[in-house]
């Protein structure tokens, strides 16, 4: 599995981010974009601005109905347009920022469409000088990473799981990840090569993976997580428990700061307490035995066609890019296990070599999805 940072470092980073982040509510027509090498989002007439992170760029494009490919293309061009002397979109006080006779076409497009949204309010989440997310004003900021981490730490203690059972953890610009394995959930998967000769059995242990996004890239999710001990490959079961971040419409003060709402906080606390049930379900032995039975069955489902074409079909179905596909093919051949179980492990082994923790976790989920394919869905892979 892909290794992140040590647990104490994760806790320290979450605490730092919790203290450094700021959230603002702003009306769309009060905001504008200002580009000069990088794009900065001006939140109000006072000129408060933040460099836009890539995630926020994508969310602005989606909010304004601009195809992302066109948005990025125009963003990367140097084309300009002469602007009126009375400022951009009525922002007279910003004229000093546009003393050049021309302004980027990208800014003109975004600002014009933003003005058309009128008084609609957006939640702008900032951290370390960047606008990291551009979200609906009903996004609940009380289900953040530090809140989730605090609750999960307490649940682990209640379940008798030590910090050492957290086998991998990370916080990226996109998500928080906690991957936990319980020593109590262990099973043996016996392998065959199709000729009746049993290879060395593989010991697997299960637990859960928890994922949360502060920037609107998915719900708070808990899924069953399985680790193959001999190679430390990790795979994620497809079934998931989700808590959405949407809640009551946010309210702000005159400076755009978010009012603390006891009702909203209570709602977030109630949702977080449900994590106890979700984690208990992921650690349920009956569910684990059901999943290990599926794993065992997958060892007998053989790839009967071309291995290369089978991997190509896998790449098409699950969106693997070229170097990921190459790694899967190499792992499958080296592992000499041409079964669906072998294919699943070939994908999760590729995950551990990736630099990007987010993408590595996505490949672990693909490894689990391979085991959930129906016979008709798997046919294209098995007989390619």
Q: What does this protein look like?
A:
The chain is α+β, with helices and mostly antiparallel strands and 384 residues long. The protein contains 13 helices and 13 strands. It has helices at residues 7-20, 54-64, 68-76, 105-116, 145-158, 262-273, 275-282, 285-298, 307-318, 322-335, 340-351, 357-371, 375-382; strands at 22-27, 32-36, 38-42, 49-52, 80-82, 102-104, 121-127, 130-136, 166-171, 176-189, 202-212, 220-228, 233-243. The strands form three sheets. The chain has a six-stranded mixed beta sheet. Strands 9-10-11-12-13 form a five-stranded antiparallel beta sheet. A hairpin with a 1-residue loop joins strand 2 and strand 3. Mean pLDDT is 86; it is low at 92-100 and 194-198.
Question: Strand-residue fraction?
Answer: 15-25%
- Per DSSP E runs of 2 or more residues, the count of β-strands stands at 13
Average predicted local confidence, pLDDT: 86
Largest sheet: 6 strands, mixed
- Choose one word for the global shape: globular
Going across the major beta sheet, what is the strand order? 1-7-8-4-3-2
Query: Number of helix segments?
Result: 13
End-to-end gap = 29 Å
Round the Cα radius of gyration to an integer and report it: 24 Å
Structural class by helix and strand composition: alpha+beta
Helix content: 40-55%
Q: Which regions contain 5 or more consecutive residues with pLDDT less than 50?
A: 92-100, 194-198
């Amino acid at each position: 599995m892909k290794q992140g940072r040590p647990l104490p470092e994760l806790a320290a980073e979450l605490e730092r981010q919790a203290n450094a982040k700021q959230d603002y509510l702003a009306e769309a027509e009060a905001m504008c974009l200002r580009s000069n090498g990088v794009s900065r989002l001006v939140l109000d007439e006072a000129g408060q601005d933040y460099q836009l992170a890539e995630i926020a760029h994508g969310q602005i494009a989606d909010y304004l109905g601009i195809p992302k490919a066109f948005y990025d293309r125009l963003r990367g061009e140097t084309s300009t347009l002469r602007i009126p002397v009375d400022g951009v979109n009525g922002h007279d006080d910003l004229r000093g920022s546009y003393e050049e006779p021309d302004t980027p076409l990208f800014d003109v497009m975004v600002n014009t469409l933003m003005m058309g949204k009128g008084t609609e309010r957006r939640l702008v989440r900032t951290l370390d000088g960047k606008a990291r997310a551009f979200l609906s004003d009903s996004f609940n900021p009380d289900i953040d990473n530090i809140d989730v981490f605090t609750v999960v730490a307490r649940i682990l203690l209640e379940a008798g799981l030590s910090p050492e059972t957290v086998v991998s953890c990370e916080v990226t610009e996109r998500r928080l990840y906690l991957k936990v394995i319980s020593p109590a959930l262990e099973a043996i998967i016996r392998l065959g090569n199709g000729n009746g000769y049993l290879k060395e059995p593989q010991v697997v242990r299960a637990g859960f993976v928890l994922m949360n996004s502060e920037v609107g890239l998915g719900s708070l999710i808990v899924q069953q997580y399985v680790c193959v001990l001999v190679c430390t490959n990790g795979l994620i079961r497809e079934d998931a428990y989700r808590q959405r971040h949407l809640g009551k419409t946010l309210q702000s003060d005159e400076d755009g700061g978010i009012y603390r709402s006891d009702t909203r906080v209570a709602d977030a606390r109630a949702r977080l307490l449900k994590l106890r049930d979700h984690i208990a379900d992921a650690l349920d032995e009956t569910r684990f035995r059901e999943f290990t039975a599926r794993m065992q069955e997958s060892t007998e489902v053989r790839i009967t066609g071309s291995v290369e074409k089978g991997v190509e079909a896998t790449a098409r179905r699950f969106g693997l890019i070229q170097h990921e596909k190459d790694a899967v093919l190499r792992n499958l051949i080296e592992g000499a296990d041409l079964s669906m179980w072998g294919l699943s492990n070939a994908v999760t082994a590729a995950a551990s070599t990736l630099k990007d923790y987010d993408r590595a976790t996505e490949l672990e989920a693909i490894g689990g999805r391979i085991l959930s394919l129906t016979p008709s869905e798997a046919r294209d892979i098995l007989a390619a």
